[in-house]
Amino acid sequence: MLASLLECAVSSPRDKRCNIVDDDTAVLRMSLVDANHPLTCQFKSYQARATFGYPPAGTKKFGIWQELGSGADGTVRMASTVPSAICGSCVTAFAVKFFHEVSHGEETKPPAEIERDHYRAIYTPHMFPKHAFQVVCLQQQCLLLPYFKPTPKNLRGKALEELERNIFPAMTNAKLRLNVDEDDEVHWRHVLNYCDSNGAIHFVFIDLLRLLPNPYSHKAWESHALGLLRQRM
Questions:
Q1: Which CB contacts under 8 angstroms, 24+ apart, belong to 123-130?
Q2: What is the DSSP string of 126-193?
Q3: Which helix (H) or strand (E) segment is 29 a member of?
Q4: pLDDT tens, 160-192?
Q5: How many CB atoms lie within 10 A of CB 65?
Q6: How big is the CA angle at 199 (ends 198 and 201), to the nearest 5 degrees?
Q7: What CA–CA distance (Å, rounded) separates 128 from 99?
């Protein structure tokens, strides 16, 4: 459940309150954005039960909550579906990434679509369904993706094992690789985690816009990246 996140959910610069009803139900104060009218925004309050997940394909109305983090390419915020006559007071929470630039280098494809394609190539369908990573227009083209938690230091050893066994080989198999020559591209802030339906913890590597082509599926970069993370334990 999202009680800890809901406590700091923000809807408006003028009102930063979010009243907790109990562990499962809260008053969500959020910016409401309609994909059918992406240039308009209004502030709403809902009493709702929130769980993590992915928005159903075709979702048009999104609640935008507080900022989760910002980097070189964009800003990530907490987001959710909104209560409706169909789903009642239940909402699904996830993350949304807004990009600083509408283009990336010499690429003709928008950055949201580039990063979506990288996530799908690495994490679907064996870890997530394809619709877990979607591009929508909410005042600008942005990327919807699952919410992942920061990885605490006591789990970094397990994270390295999963990166070595599954995640980095999946990048190589997708003919992609991390830019291990750039100091800022391989950090623990990029290694997040989530729990599956059985409560097991899994790890992911995020911020995939700047992945480099790896047309011959060379693997040497994998050990280099793991070494950098070990140095930064």
A1: 123/170, 123/204, 127/202, 127/204, 128/54, 129/54
A2: TTS-GGGSEEEESSSEEEEE---EEPPGGGHHHHHHHIIIIIHHHHHHTTEE--TTSGGGS-GGGEEE
A3: strand 25-34
A4: 999 999 999 999 999 999 999 876 789 999 999
A5: 26
A6: 120
A7: 23
Residue 7 corresponds to which tokens in the numbers above? 């406590």
Residue pair 175/221 in contact (Cβ under 8 Å)? The answer is no
DSSP alpha helix (H) spans, the chain: 3-6, 111-123, 156-162, 168-173, 220-231
Q: Which two tokens stand for residue 36?
A: 């059918």
Strand partners, 49: 25, 90
- The average confidence (pLDDT) of the chain is 80
The letter for the amino acid at 11 is: S
